[in-house]
Amino acid sequence: MIVHITLPEDWAAARNSGQYLASTRGVTMAAAGFLHASEDAAQVNRVGSALYSDRPDAFVVAMEEEALTAAGLHVRREPSDLHDPTSPLFPHVYGASVPPMLMRPIPRRAAEARVLREDDPKAQHLLDTGWSVESTSWGARLHLGDEADLSPYTCRVQDAEERGLCVRKLGAEDLVRLEALDGLVAPDFPHTPASHHDPLPADLSARIAGGDARAFGAFHRGELVGFTVVVQAKERWEVDRTAVDRRWRGQGVAQAVKASSVLDTYADGVRVWGTGGAAVNTASRRMNEALGFVLEPFWLALVPPVGWREYAESGPGGMRIES
Ligand SMILES: CC(C)(COP(=O)(O)OP(=O)(O)OC[C@H]1O[C@@H](n2cnc3c(N)ncnc32)[C@H](O)[C@@H]1OP(=O)(O)O)[C@@H](O)C(=O)NCCC(=O)NCCS
Fold first, then answer.
1. pLDDT tens across 120-173, in order?
2. Which of 2, 96, 211, 282 is the most buried (most CB within 10 A)?
3. Residue 277 and residue 176 in one domain
4. What is the per-residue burial (b if ≥16 Cβ within 10 Å, else e) of 292-301?
5. What residues are in contact with ligand 1 under a 6 Å CB criterion?
6. CATH number assigned to the domain comprising residue 16
């Protein structure tokens, strides 16, 4: 990995044009013929102190040499003073301008993520200033009209029942088993800044009794193998979580319990449902799309870039570097 110090304005221009045109501060790639880079924190310190001491917002981007080579560029180690062969060697990237997708802002260590929708102008502004996407999550909505065809939902429940499962609404007496299964599958929930497993609401029993939460489960020979919990959220019902015992996944159990929750709440006049999860949770997304949930714009967990000075002091060892 080699690194380069960039300015937010150069980074924003590169994101907009798809080409990183700067070579170093105040010098274009066209004028220099190559992109200036650094090997390590010591070189970043040297370049930063010489050129960016008045710009604490200048940040560090990483480049993988193999990726640069694969893109037809090449890295040469050359004296920092081209007229003095004894001056220290720095990496220089030759070829066309480097596509910004091959330059990855290095996130600041332990920085707290900001979660914004991808179509929020604030998200685009942060990305322009070197923030990067740590993880992505999705939200989805299901809208059904008054005369909706409910057969896809009844079919999902029937399919599960034909396979020997009993799908039904859960009552207070089922909550101990629901909690046990939730605890068992907790490690399987993706853990990202915007999506993770939380303990079940402490007042779930009271909320179920009060009617603003409902739970549905699938049983096999009396054993709870999957459940969904939905809660009322103003004009819609929101899925709190859905989980299936590992041994029963990929067999339509989640779809059956969710279909059951849709049928039950629909009968009481509900017409809009919401759900969401981590982008990496393909099974959850597929299961929801199969039930008619439509994806909304993604949510991005954004983390700030490391400034050149902090990088110079800590080096890559102290940074959070993602593959
Ligand atoms: C997400 C979860 C509830 C899905 O349960 P499930 O009973 O396996 O889901 P279903 O069988 O009803 O549907 C899963 C769908 O995803 C597909 N799928 C499953 N695993 C997949 C994977 N790794 N990649 C792509 N698709 C996958 C299935 O083929 C199915 O789609 P299909 O009906 O088009 O064939 C289950 O994996 C789970 O409990 N995970 C841990 C808890 C969790 O992450 N919950 C979601 C957040 S609330």
1. 999 999 999 999 999 999 899 999 999 999 999 999 999 999 999 999 999 999
2. 2
3. yes
4. bbeeeebbbb
5. 185, 188-189, 226, 241-244, 249-255, 277, 281-284, 286-287, 290
6. 3.20.170.20
Question: What predicted TM-score, i.e. pTM, was given to this entire model?
Answer: 0.77
Report the alpha-carbon distance of residue 3 to residue 40 in Å, rounded: 7
Return the bridge partners of 148, or none.
Answer: none
What is d(CA 306, CA 262) in angstroms, rounded to the nearest whole number? 46
Same domain (yes/no): 155, 280: yes
Of 249, 258, 262, 285, best ligand 1 pocket probe by most atoms within 8 Å of the beta carbon: 249
Residues 194 and 289 in one domain: yes
Helix axes 253-267, 282-290, angle to 10 degrees: 50
Mutational test site, ligand 1, from 138, 246, 286, max ligand atoms within 8 Å of CB: 286
The DSSP code sequence of 282-299 is HHHHHHHHHTT-EEPPPE
Amino acid letter for position 1: M
Task: Give residue-wise pLDDT tens across range 54-99.
Answer: 999 999 999 999 999 999 999 999 998 878 888 899 999 999 889 9
| Cα of 2 from ligand 1 centre, angstroms | 40
Residue nearest to atom 20 of ligand 1 (CA): 283
Task: Judge whether 127 lies within some domain.
Answer: no
Contacts of 285 (CB under 8 A, 6+ apart): 138, 140, 277, 279, 295
Residue 245 lies in domain: 137-300
DSSP state of 135: E
Distance CA 14, CA 268 (A): 53
Residues in the chain, overall count = 323
Q: What is the pLDDT of residues 186-211, one digit of tens each?
A: 999 988 776 789 999 999 999 999 99
Q: Is 303 left (phi over 0), alpha (psi -120 to 50) or beta?
A: beta
